[in-house]
Amino acid sequence: MANSHVDLSTAVWRKSSYSNGDGGNCVEVADDLPGIVPVRDSKAPHGPAIVFPATAWATFVTAVKDTGLPGV
After folding, report:
1. What's the whole-model pTM score?
2. Nearest residue to 27 via CA among 3, 2, 44, 6
3. DSSP conformation class of 3
4. Which is more confidently placed, 20 or 12?
5. Which of 56, 23, 22 is nearest to 38 (CA)?
């Protein structure tokens, strides 16, 4: 979504279920917006977010799961 402004003011953010308890190395996603999945660093909640098309995010998540990485 290059060069597009997306209003994330109503996004409901959630941390990855694999995030550690001390708040470090966490990503947050908002999966309640139609057609897009914004991703941000949980340590900078007011910072920028990267916005992916929902289909691209689903492909990415599937690929990560299929690699068998520990903790995924």
Report:
1. 0.76
2. 44
3. T
4. 12
5. 56
